[in-house]
Amino acid sequence: MRKSIATVSLSGSLSEKLTAIATAGFDGVEIFENDLLAGPLSPEEIRLRCADLGLSIDLYQPFRDFEAVPGDRLARNLRRAERKFDVMERLGADLLLVCSSVAPEAVDDDVLAAEHLRLLAERAERHGIRIAYEALAWGRHVSTYDHAWRIVELAGHPALGTCLDSFHILSRGSDPKGIADIPGEKIFFLQLADAPLMAMDVLQWSRHYRCFPGQGGFDVAGLVAAAVRAGYTGPLSLEVFNDVFRQAGAASTAVDALRSLLLLEESAGLSAPPAPAVPSGFAFAELTAADPEPLRGVLGALGFGRTGRHTSKPVELWEQGEARILLNTGAGDRRQGPALAAIGVETSDPDRAAQRAEAMLAPVVPRRRARGDAPLDAVAAPDGTELFFCRTDRSDLPSWTGDFTGVPQHEAAEPAGIGRIDHIALTQPWHQFDEASLFYRGVLGLEADDSLDLADTYGLRRSRAVATADGGVRIALNVAPAPGDDDARLQHIALATDDIIATARRVRARGAGLLPIPVNYYDDLDARYELDPHILATLAELGILYDRDESGEFFHCYTATVGRVFFELVQRTGGYRGYGAQNAAVRLAAQHAHQHAV
């Protein structure tokens, strides 16, 4: 289906918005009146600009507070409408969105509302324009889509139809099944937005917290499927009011928006892009460091051995069990220190994984490959983290591990009991949290947990985990505490062990300092869980945090931070699937205290 977006969904001038929308790959645009009024371009110039960009103008909006008003007000409204029709003719737009009235003088009279809307449709028809009537969720007398349709049906004019808006419908808890009662040809337009489920005034909810489909809690796909079954053939169009989107860059937001529609089409059964090659685990995590010695020390203390050097790049391979860390010494910021730059995921079909990523608009990372290097495709996540698709044990082509030559045996360390990478935590720029969640779900086929608020010493952090159903790949996405606070964008790698107490003792004995945890935490832990006193004392000695749920237990502790990276040791028992979120406030406070102490 054709794809469109309202200009109000993006930041910037109208010209900047149109360029971003076209570059992302949209087919059309809704012109929001304020964007036209606030800009220097005439309607004719906007029309030409859209034509040059290959964009159709699918809708002009909004026209407010028109119907069911006293006679003198109706006359003024019709005059106002005629002026808007003139503007639309100059724009080349042939569909006007009319919102249900919120005017105090509007009366609760469906017959009168239908009569007024018929008058409006008659005048619009003379200009070659149609009217799409939409029920605002906070409309004074008309606030549901089925009520709006009854008025449209009562008016009975061919130039009058309805606009279905997913936010207005789903925020009120209305059942989209009733859409089946509306003839498809009378659904003139379909506006789409998702939103997190919140208990608040619906107008404020709408104006500030809408998001793209798949980023909230509404069943937008079900609504779209219902509209298509009813016979709707128009565009899928996004109308999103969001404070973050309107401050972020228009180009990246437009790509995120189109990706959301591609996933929405797939979820609604309207398209069949390449299926995701769901990963089975992590192949590696790549760290960059202009000064690699501090990281080498930590990796050695954790029990990793340096097992290889890349044949053509300044990259080292460190291994322990199935956990692999690449240390790139030819990149990195010396001032900010080591950073997590790339993730490799194991997939049975790297080619299909790359095709899926490109279909979901993930930018391909140009890769310098020497002769003989194994083929390895990579795309960039919204925050710039590179995502590689690997098949370490492949037999049809050389494995990426074959790009590394061995090192002397004396560089191998005694293992500390680490078996694999359990999860990776990526702190996102403040404006890319929702985009990142949608990206990993769309590209890798991961499932998303609910968003959480984590208490920090300096405010709340948002966190959301995305993972495979079996937990083979887990990625925890966090949002930086404040806009522009890049120094706070710490990333970490969680390493799994079957015996965290033994592993922690080995790591500490080798000189890697584990994050100290206040004794108050363990007093509270004893009150909550009544752990065996010996176990409790051991956890306190080693700085190990604890959590449990109905399925199992979770033990975890942390190394000190090196640059923007730290490591977590974790042990899961039973079917525990969480990340110890209730311990986040303690960990964050301990990290702040430790950083200030050093």
Brief description of this entry?
The chain contains 17 helices and 25 strands. The chain is an alpha/beta fold and 598 residues long.
Features:
598 residues; alpha/beta; nine-stranded mixed sheet; eight-stranded parallel beta barrel; 32% helix; 25% strand; elongated
Q: Low-confidence parts lasting 5 or more residues at pLDDT below 50?
A: none
Q: Whole-number radius of gyration?
A: 28 Å
Overall geometry: elongated
Main pleated-sheet profile: 9 strands, mixed
Helix fraction? 25-40%
Mean pLDDT over the residues: 93
Number of strands: 25
Q: What is the terminal-to-terminal distance? A: 57 Å
Number of helices: 17
| Percentage of β-strand residues | 15-25%
> Which secondary-structure class do the elements indicate?
alpha/beta
SSE layout and pairing:
Elements: E1 3-6, H1 14-24, E2 28-32, H2 33-37, H3 43-53, E3 56-63, H4 71-91, E4 95-99, H5 110-126, E5 130-134, H6 145-155, E6 160-165, H7 166-170, E7 187-192, H8 202-209, H9 220-230, E8 236-238, H10 250-267, E9 281-288, H11 293-301, E10 305-310, E11 315-320, E12 323-328, E13 339-346, H12 350-359, E14 377-380, E15 386-390, E16 404-405, E17 418-428, H13 433-444, E18 447-448, E19 452-456, E20 459-467, E21 474-479, E22 491-497, H14 500-509, H15 519-529, H16 533-542, E23 545-548, E24 552-558, E25 565-574, H17 584-597
Parallel strand pairs: 1-2, 1-8, 2-3, 3-4, 4-5, 5-6, 6-7, 7-8, 9-12, 13-15, 17-21, 22-25
Antiparallel strand pairs: 9-13, 10-11, 10-16, 11-12, 14-15, 17-22, 18-20, 19-20, 20-21, 23-24, 24-25
Helix pairs in contact: 1-3, 1-10, 3-4, 4-5, 5-6, 10-13, 15-16
